[in-house]
Specification:
The chain is an alpha+beta fold and about 190 residues long. Helix content is about 20%, strand content about 35%.
Length: about 190
């Protein structure tokens, strides 16, 4: 029996060496980088990706503007030595970030056709979907007549130094916010 076993082992060894020699003959002499045209994920993998772990700003679900001025208010204010005007008193900005629980601080500046007015800043925390909104209460000393505003620039930042690109809002977007017809972006993680 041990002789049969020995013969079997020898036969297996010979076959293994034969296969290895055949593979060496058929193997290319130089390896080349494979070319991959595309990778197709199964449907469940396309929708079940893990959320980002890097704090940052992101485009809303379904596209649309990265940030929306969802609300604004005005009141009559009198600049020093001037006459009373309808002035921006409050604005609410909404956008999406990559993680829940992030503290977001936004600052706004109004352009009055070449003259800028600091509108102030405000902080809030992003919710479970990455959505946040923050309301900036314009200081009483800052007079920004709504009719004279040519644009409002908002820059938001996260703790750790990540800053959004400047978000520039037009008079039409301000009008929608003042009228209460603007809608917040839809965010998802």
């Amino acid at each position: 029996m041990s002789q049969e076993r020995k013969l079997d082992r020898r036969a297996v060894l010979r076959r293994s060496l034969g296969i290895a020699a055949g593979a060496a003959i058929l193997a290319p002499t130089q390896w080349k980088k494979p070319v991959i045209d595309s990778v197709l994920l199964p449907v469940h993998a396309q929708t079940s990706g893990s959320p980002s772990t890097t704090p940052g700003f992101k485009t809303p679900t379904g596209g649309g503007p990265d940030a929306v001025m969802i609300n604004a208010a005005s009141e009559t204010r009198t600049p020093s030595g001037g006459t009373s005007v309808d002035s921006l008193s409050q604005l609410t900005i909404a956008a999406c970030v990559t993680l829940p629980g992030l503290t977001v601080t936004c600052s706004a500046v109004a352009d009055l056709g070449g003259t800028t007015v600091n509108l102030g800043s405000s902080s809030s925390t992003s919710g479970s979907t990455g959505a946040f909104s923050t309301t900036i209460n314009v200081p009483p000393a800052s007079v920004a007549p709504t009719a004279a505003i040519t644009s409002i620039t908002v820059i938001c930042s996260l703790a750790g130094g990540v800053t959004s690109p400047p978000m520039v809002f037009t008079p039409a977007q301000l009008s929608a916010a003042l009228a209460g017809t603007a809608t917040a972006p839809v965010c998802s993680l």
